[in-house]
Amino acid sequence: MNTLLNIILFILLFFLKSYAQFYVDSTTQDYIIEFVKIADEHARQNDPSKGIIKLFSDEEIYHIAELYSKCYNDDPVGFQKYLNEKHREWERASLDVTSGKIKMKPWSKVYGLKDAISYKYGVPFAKVIGIPAFIKCKYIKWMYSDYYIVDKENKFKTHNLIFLVEDVLKGNKFFTVGDTVSISMMPNIESLVPNFISGKSYLIPVGILLGLQDDAFNSVFIYLNDMQGAREMGKPPKTFPIENEILKNCEYFGIQDTNWTDFKKYFKETYLIFD
Predict the structure, then answer these.
(1) Residues 6 or more apart from 19 whose CB is under 8 A from it?
(2) Is 186 contained in some domain?
């Protein structure tokens, strides 16, 4: 009976402490609207099939990267909600045969600007500034649950990774040291579950998954790859274990394995330049 009670208390604690992650109760922010307008204009001015590609000045690409970082750092749920509404508008227009040529998907326009940032600053930089949170945490266990997309009759089996937050490298407004959090992912042949060991500490990149048809979202594990959009079939994602306060696999971030204190300083100076 005591075991059952402990399980119930753990589940209640988990949901109470992790539910509000990434949520910002506000109207659509001006920086989100500005970024999407730039993405729209960039898509209109480019036609790779005809060799027409708009190049940004150093000042322009810096501003675009700053806006992109702000969208994900300050209000990632609001940003995804706004893009998803644009996507629904795109879907309605694509069903209208009188509307002429089908325009580019809104998310594809965003990825176009992300590619421009990657070209200027490198893939890891563009990837990191577009991830809302990096947290140092101790792995506890995993459990399964179902994730639904409303009105699409889709159900996915999610693999929920349970962690105890030990430090927050990025995302202080969303995570607090001492929180017990659930980081979800949908494992398949292209997205295998990371090789985590219970009781060990890791640096975890965390983003969100927002259903296209509702406002529900999950905190999700983000893959870090050295190439844009690359993922090796059947290979678990890169992990960043911390052993005796030494962070491993730091080459992705452009340095050698180093102690946590020095890495925090390096990370702030290299990737949090817009804060």
Answers:
(1) none
(2) yes
